[in-house]
Please model this.
Amino acid sequence: MKCRHCHAELSLPFMDLGTSPPSNAYLKKTQLAQPESWYPLRVFTCTQCWLVQTEDYAHYAELFSSEYAYFSSFSTTWLDHSRRFVEKAVRRFGLSGASHVVEIGSNDGYLLQFVQEAGIPCTGIEPTTSTASAARAKGIKVVEKFFGRVLGQELSAAGGAADLTIANNVLAHVPDINDFIGGFARLLKPSGVASFEFPHLMRLVADCQFDTIYHEHFSYLSLATVSRMFDANGLSVFDVEELPTHGGSLRVYAQRRDAGTRAIEPAVKRLLDIETSAGLSTAVYYEGFQRRADDIRDGLLTFLVEARRSGHAVGAYGAAAKGSTLLNYAGIRPSLLPWVIDRNPAKQGHFMPGSRIPILDESHLRRERPAFVLILPWNLRTEVFDQLAYVREWGGKFVCAVPKLQVE
Model:
């Protein structure tokens, strides 16, 4: 396999998770008698540009189907995060009713609703019908296509050039990352700004967040690699912020390389120096990750087996993509974990891909009163603790497996 950015041959393994179905391919009851499509889930590091990336097997159209079940608006934490970003961007970049904001991967309108409320014209680009329809129901204009150079040029030529483009947790999801980045250089106005958010590779490695690896995540990103890819595709980074979201993310601001005039902020060099000192551009940095992930897997399995032997009921909360990775890598099935609770009606009544654990609504949790609740989206643990505070009333405890097994 060749690197999806620089096309060098890939030879440095990072993580082998065996095989797994697409993490958001939730099963209907009628599908339980049918086989699932499982694909190898292996990750390599390019030793030329240091892009960490999956080995491709599944086509992106299968991963992001018309029935895509991830809806961003079900997380109050994410809604608050998005609202604060919009307020900050409006102030910093002087956005007004004369501006145009475009979000790529706009999902169900979770963020653009705040742009719309501020009286700023906006457009969403979202290829999945299920979430695009939810955004349109909020009155948001949505272009239901995958984004790249061609679409960026078409929108700009039709009068839709952007003062601000937003791509939150999308950069890692695109198979042709050069075409995707190049689309922003064509869509932005000469003075326009592009904002990207993505999980930081340094945090993934430091906290062994191996469950954030799944087929829908084609790339795992550092600031150095992103800066290199942007420069090769018509953009330049001028600022970066470190965020707590998704276990530790970066928000990168970029401008057109041929027309941007914004000065490069000191934060860019500071973080690049940190990544260099940590050794992200050395092979040794990526060694040992597999063993650490195996230890987490084994610890969770041991906990679940001991709980069953002791007669302690365990359920899970949050049918998240990272939960699919964890459950399938550990080989966990309903005999050890009989159900997962999720607030999203689009997931309720379905079954987790691979493990085939049923996804139920929150009333089931209240009825069953388990001794332990395993939180699969550990990045939302504080939100879940608050939402499910009543679990402690019957003596129940919460469990997180990543970055280490914690029972509290």
Summary: Residues 289-309 form the longest helix (21 residues). The domain at 289-407 is CATH 3.40.50.720 (Rossmann fold). The CA atoms of residues 108 and 133 lie 7 Å apart.
